[in-house]
Prior knowledge:
alpha/beta, globular
Amino acid sequence: MNDPLAGTEPAPAEPAPEVPGPVGTRPEPPVLPAAEGPPATTLPAEAPTAEGPARLRVALSERPERVLVEIDGVLDYETEGRLRGALDGVAAKPGRRFVLDLSRVGFLDSGGIGALLAIRRGVLSRGGELAVTEVSPMVARLLRMTGLDEVLLPGTGC
């Protein structure tokens, strides 16, 4: 019998697809320095997930006249609970003035906006004040588009 494959070399084997290694950790962003006074309280960053890093860093600097809240990272539906949790103890005190620095927020979604508005509502209900002093360009654009610049940045616009 004639074997059509007789005398032919076998086809080279396909190389095995490369399997990615375990998800590595990214270097931690620098801790936001606190101005004069007691050191800032910084929450640890969340570990990366398979979908990507859901990172949020919150640094609190308490002074007698105000609480500076520096937020760095992603403020969305996955991380907004971390922000609320970080402010629970200090926001419960009546008559506090909060200054939020959002200049290092790279992403903000409806969950993050909801958290900011809930924090504002809680602070105001206790006779305090909340001012957003710095915003990243992305946050400024989003606040302008939603009209929340008039609520969170009164008199300044973005």
